[in-house]
Amino acid sequence: MIIAAMFAGAIRFLQVKKPDQVAPFVTLLDSLKVTVISVLTNVIKLMPYGVVALVSNTIISRGIQAIMGMIGFIAALYTGVLLMLIVYVILLLFMGVNPIVFYKKAFTTLLFAFSSRSSVGTLPYTLKNLEEDLGVSQETANFVATLGTSIGMNGCAGVFPAMLGVLMGSAVGAEMDLSFYFLVVVVVTVGSIGIAGVPGTATVAATVTLNGLGFGHTIASIGAIFGIDPIVDMGRTMLNVAGSMVSAIMVDKWEGTFDKQAFLAPLNKKNEEE
Predict the structure, then answer these.
(1) What whole-number distance in Å separates Cα of residue 22 and Cα of residue 14?
(2) How far apart are CA 236 and CA 194, in angstroms?
């Protein structure tokens, strides 16, 4: 990611100083972007069927009891997801943006994220939604939404590992004081950097958090939680995408490039059908 940022900075500089020499490389990158988006679009059309297969496999291999035994954890995680969605409402209101309009226009994208379980797979729809429906500039949408697929994912790298950290801390008898919760926040924040936005990476974030808190020896004890991962991963991914979209709007507002008229305009019927 650091190398990519260095390349991006060099390209922006050279487009001003030596535009003719850097133009072929920029064209190549644009072509690669279009090609990758096309491949992802074809793959994610089949992904919902894969989600059904994963959930079915969990029930068949572990039995319905495994899911029923973890119903409390599932409920707690989705409560955390709901609370974060409310936090997004507060942030949007603070920025002077109507949260009702946001959720109405972002609903299709969030639904796709929920069913696909992939922030990266949802990225083409996220970018299109931000630019065409939510009034976010192309530069901000491309930068913030793309960065949001690997950094700061509030669901997979935030809520989920934090819950596991608190759960295992309580199980091993750790002192649940303010310093412990502060440590959880720090470890989760640092561990969220560089987590890929594809199905299953929350497991990596969870192991990073548990090791960072000194509970690495408990990883073998949370197999049941990973067994119901497809169920909780849907909510986590939706939260990830919602967070990156809210971040894009906030950054665009700060930059002064947010198109409020486009944001408040009626949703394009063609986009609704898609």
Answers:
(1) 6
(2) 16
